[in-house]
Predict the 3D structure of the following.
Amino acid sequence: VSERPVDISVLRSDIRDAIRLERNADGGWAYYSGKRSRIEPTCWALLALGQAETIAPDFDVLRRWPRKGGWLIETVGTPPNHAFNAIAALTLLHSPSDVALAEPIVRLLSASKGLRLPPDPIVRLDSSLQAWSWVDGAPSWVEPTAWCVLLLRHLTARRPNPEAAERIRVGEQMLADRACRDGGWNYGNSNVYGQDLPPYVPTTALALLALQGRRIDAVVRGLERLERDVFTERSVMALSLAVICLRIYGRRTAVPEEQLKTLLSARDVKAGLNDDLLGLAMALYALSDPPLTALTLGAAA
Amino acid sequence: MKASHRSGGHELSRRHFLAAVSLPLLAPACLWRPYDAGSFPVPERSSVGLFPATDYATDFADLVYRGFRELGANVTGRRVFLKPNMVEYEPGTAINTHPHLIAGTAIACRRSGASEVVIGEGPGHRRDIEYLLSATGLADQVREQRIRFVDLNHDDVQMVRLKSWFTGMRELALPVELLESDFIISMPKLKTHHWAGMTCSMKNLFGTVPGAVYGWPKNVLHLHGIPNSIVDLVATIRPHFTIVDAVTAMEGDGPIMGRPRTLGFVAMGSDLVAVDATCARVIGLDPAKIDYLRAASRFLGVSDSGRIDHRGESPSRYATQFDIVDALKPLRLTTQLLVG
């Protein structure tokens, strides 16, 4: 690991170049270099480039993305992924000419509910709360719920909608219910067979993004936990999401930002950072100048 | 038979959700078979090797190389895919296949003439593979040995027709890197499992199912029954070999929250059913009472101890009784039936 201070403008420029270089011929990005374009890294790359560049990125890839029944789909035969469709809709909302393209996805997500299960002593959660599952016909989990709540809160801030407001209420209630005992979130189980399970930094950051502005205990304890765990869970994904979240919450980010820069510099950025394009895009977004508009909710939300 | 469930007002009990979908496993063999028996020739006898390894300072490259020779595993010219178990990280626990065993296996494969060795895993709870690789120490081994690691959760996928239909599913998305390999080695950690009874070489294949398609956790497998999913995955992927980390295993509330328990061996074999059945007996569980092993023994391999030839050490050397959660106590062996 280099001991030299990292020049942020050089690092940002290197990451931007690497992301541009790794764009597939169809205009999208894969999770890893040389692979097929996928929804999630494509959206993060578009958001990051949109944040980091003066020229708006080309959203054409999302306009042309294969759809089935209104959902954006990846490989033929795979089920629509609710979390990634929510990210796509959120991305389209930030391309003024493409807002209409987000509407069918929003309608589908608004109608989609996680499977309801009766109480079970084995797992400590309220499984009657129908938030969002990853795919149809499955129970609700933290990550898809966080993305869908964030999306609907963006939309209702622009245009009030009672039905969406009710889905947001249930989604937020579900997130609060799934919080780990000592704060933070993992994938969505806080306790199994009486054993408390630990939170993860990425899912904690995403849940907190969805709960921006909410003065509830889960947010207070989640933030405390994130500020503590960000120093132990070292990865580009964890540090990037933590920095994004802490910046949006107005917390100090100097140390995790420095750690992120060091981690990125330890990789050979120009060689593609071990080909992790999703991590690269998250990092570029995290290290961009404020405001991080796509993921920040205003007071109206 | 598949459980029906809707995302609206329909309620489904969690136990039904996780367990009762295993009905095909309980169906009498004379009724409908959810597989084409002609496609699955079961050997008359199978060999299982148990090789002593008192700790993780063992020369695993040598141990695995000897195991390959004794058990007739031929990786010459093959693109070998190592699928370890790396599901979560907690300091001081025994959740994951030890990196030294994984690296030793990679070296043994190269020494045996493999054209390429790739390691791949798709953790079922965490998406952050960089963190897991680093925390578990596998990143250091991958770097030192210059082995390519594939994140199975985020790899390109292909829809694959299942070769048995216990789940009721006809196809499933699987990672392209796995499908393009020509010698797959399942490398589990031997652990109790609070839903399935035990997790070993067969259950380990849950980590091949891509999270970026089905989510975290991989509910498609739970929705169709964990035992059903295990059998369908093994029937479809058909790993060529397994190397089980039973140096330090896990008892109690596995696969995450259990306690480390030293056993001191590495199990190997090309018949995953035989290896898992042997490991079950070693830890005091009856393979005939573990749903997925009972179903798999009908068409995927041998579980009857009388048809298993042992190489290396006798299972009786390691025989013990693992602590298990109350719900699994009916799975215990009623007699110590290990064959020496």
Summary: Strands of chain A lie at 67-68, 71-72, 191-192, 195-196.
